[in-house]
Amino acid sequence: MCIRYLGFILLWFPGGVTQSCSAPSLDHGFFAPKQEIYSHGKKLTYTCNDGYKPAEKSWWVTSTCENGKWSHQPQCIDESFCAEPNIPNGKYTKIQTGWYKVGATIRIRCDQGYEHKNQAVTARCQDGAWTTLPICEKSINACSEPPKIQHAVIINQEYQEVFAVDSEVQYECEDGFTTEGGDTKNFIYCLSGTWTKGPTCVRAKSDTGSDGSAGGHTTSTVSIITSFIITVDNCGRLPHVPNGDVGEQGQMFLKYQCSSYYKHVGPEKVTCNSDGTWSPLPTCEAAFCALDPAQYPESNLRPGLGVQYIKEGETKNIPCIWDRMSMPVKCINRQIISRNRCKDIVRGATAA
């Protein structure tokens, strides 16, 4: 009777069904142990004949059967060829074969937050080895991992050790906690190697205790609330909010809107209480940066512009002393962010 192997067999383990691997095909080399079928998790070691080398980095290599596939396909290549290099904190375009012929050149792109050391960006395969491989080192303006903040977690961002300048991450407070401004989310930014100040998450104020009683006091009596909301006409003159105006007035409430370059903080609606007092008012906090080019003569900004105002989160191009050139300036957390470079408005070129 003739038995033909189909490349894998199914094995049953307590954790479920797994697949075994058939022996790999290896030209110009050999492996051990020599078997026709390898069970899941089984390892083999291989090496290459004279004039050849593994497509990995050592003269002997181990590969593992992982659910019907080898962790990497054993392969022997000509000694003059180059294996894929490992570039910490850098990337390059890889080819399908996994190895490069003599004379092949690769270009390295450093990850965000890293830059090329000594300006070297390419490497060339020569006699089985790469000429000086580029090194990606942490940029002087990059930031390390963001700080851990009590009762908060970073959202919408995978973990990484280094962040490029101008990076932003967002924190969200734990349930039952808010920032001091009343928000539950807050951004911080990487500026010149340092993170801006993060939020402070404090326990949200509540008028009801854990036992359901008012103010958290344990009592068997029920307080009678004598103050209730009435029409806004009963409170007389409308309250003044600095840098804000009444944007909407209903019969039972007021809504305030802040002036340009200011942000609304606090309650959305203001109501009139039965005792003739107003409910807590919102505030309009400054949300802009002020830049006076005259204070930075070394920046090459055009003199005589006067103070420039930039809204929070926006970028404004400030004219430079050269025609058609400007410097992009961004306002983040009321701090001015700029690379101190004047750029061609049309072409995007940078002035020296």
From TrEMBL:
Domain of life: Eukaryota
Signal peptide stretch: 1-18
All residue ranges annotated as the Sushi domain in the record: 19-78, 80-138, 141-203, 233-286
Stored SUPFAM superfamilies: Complement control module/SCR domain (SSF57535)
Pfam families registered for this protein in UniProt: Sushi
InterPro entries in the record: ComplSys_Reg/VirEntry_Med (IPR051503), Sushi/SCR/CCP_sf (IPR035976), Sushi_SCR_CCP_dom (IPR000436)
Gene3D superfamilies named in the record: Complement Module, domain 1
Protein name, entry field: Sushi domain-containing protein
Organism: Anabas testudineus (Climbing perch)
Encoding gene per record: APOH
